[in-house]
Amino acid sequence: xxILITQExxxxxDWVEAECRRRGEEYLRLCTEQFPTSVQISTEPxxxxxxxxxxxxxxxxxxxxxxxxxxxxxxMVELDPSIPEGQRPFxxxxxxxxxxGLYRVLxxxxxxxxxxxxxxxxxxxxxxxxxxxxxFTVAPTLVTNDPAKALSFFEACRGxxxxxxxxxxxxxxxxxxxxxxxxxxVTEETLDASLDSIALAPCLFQQLIPKDYEIRVxxxxxxxxxxxxxxxxxxxxxxxxxxxxxxxxxxxxxLPPEIERLCLRMKQRLxxxxxxxxxxxxxxxxxxxxxxxPNGQWAWIEELTGLPLRQALxxxxxxxxxxxxxxxxxxESLQFETELAS
Length: 342
What we know:
single chain, alpha+beta, six-stranded mixed beta sheet, four-stranded parallel beta sheet, 9 helices, about 25% strand
């Protein structure tokens, strides 16, 4: 049995569910926002044979039958509204601790990837230093809350500088509307206008690097599935391809062997069983490292390119190999049929 640790609304989990159904593989979609109100978890960690169960809608799922767990996108636990306000922090922490303890006590199962490993791998500063040490080319980068250093770095970049959040977190405006901050071009005017605000929160600045196209490297287990993203063909995606991922041209590609090896080494050093690595290819053909997403999006890539990512993911969770003769892996073809999740 597989456990998909996620939330009620998540397209990627829908796709993996469809793959489990296609195989006839038993699974549980554990929507953590339903805990503890409508999901019951019981464990006996000191029993001579560790045992426990998860009960959802009256059905029991024994932990002894769990083979693999996918830590996808868990929701925040939601407490019963009858709990008094003063007791809610305690109830929340106890509920969250029970989930975390459940994850850690299942250390001997197949994980993609363990939550604490995912959390440790997600820090951009660490990723950038590690990428440079491994041999990737990395754009000049400054992380600072010192306005003077930001201004000096802007001048060193000769005015060709971008800003990125250290972590993508939705921001809510005064009207309650949520939005995210994407890669932003920093001009002399915008820097002058916001220079003092740099002291209020650290910023990640990088030299703007010209792109020919971008690459999304999907690593599942020890296999690499790469796709090109032709972001420079549309004005909307030139600076950040996430502005229009569904329509920008994307194609399955093979990486040069030395770049593929670097990507695998990065995944191994971060101790991940799956990750997504973003690269830039410059007009001169140089490959630059951008970042690692230890728990990233990939469904749109499968939909647009036909790369069998959900099949590879379920293979990794089960410890089987159904893709050894796939034409991408045998370097026979880059054209594949796409089957949408149902």
